[in-house]
């Protein structure tokens, strides 16, 4: 199964987290983050990897997810052979605060991680974006 997904992440308290070698340390505010990604080989395996604490730090998101203050609260996804993560990111971006250069080293987007103070705004943005793009939304 191939597709694109949004991780809804709760960061319980302000945290300073080292994100790889290039980004170094980033100060994250407590609140909710949407991370947009895709899996063009095995969507289910990718989502399970994100949910696991037993992984090597490979992608930017791994550093955030392995922080003791972060937790995935929901995963929204769409099954598709077309990679639409950048379209989703571009639609969520105007309604949020971006974390510059996060998760977007292989595209021309400014970011694939977006901050929201509250969960309601984050969920609304995900649902509205999927609807606007005509994507069937599913919850993992």
Automatic annotation (TrEMBL):
It comes from Methanobrevibacter woesei. CDD domains: GIY-YIG_COG1833. PANTHER family: ENDONUCLEASE III. Residues 19-117 form the GIY-YIG domain. This is GIY-YIG domain-containing protein. It comes from the Archaea. InterPro entries: DUF123, GIY-YIG_endonuc.
């Amino acid at each position: 199964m191939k597709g694109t997904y949004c991780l809804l992440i709760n960061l319980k308290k302000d945290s300073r987290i080292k994100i790889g070698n290039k980004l170094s340390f980033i100060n994250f505010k407590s609140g909710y983050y949407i991370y947009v990604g895709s899996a063009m080989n095995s969507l289910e395996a990718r989502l399970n990897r994100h949910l696991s604490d037993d992984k090597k730090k490979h992608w930017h998101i791994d550093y955030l997810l392995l922080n003791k203050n972060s937790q995935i609260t929901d995963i929204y996804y769409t099954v598709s052979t077309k990679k639409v993560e950048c379209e989703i990111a571009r639609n969520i971006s105007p309604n949020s605060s971006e974390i510059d250069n996060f998760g977007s080293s292989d595209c021309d987007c400014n970011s694939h991680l977006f901050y929201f103070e509250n969960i309601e705004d984050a969920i609304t943005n995900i649902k509205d974006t999927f609807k606007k793009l005509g994507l069937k939304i599913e919850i993992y």
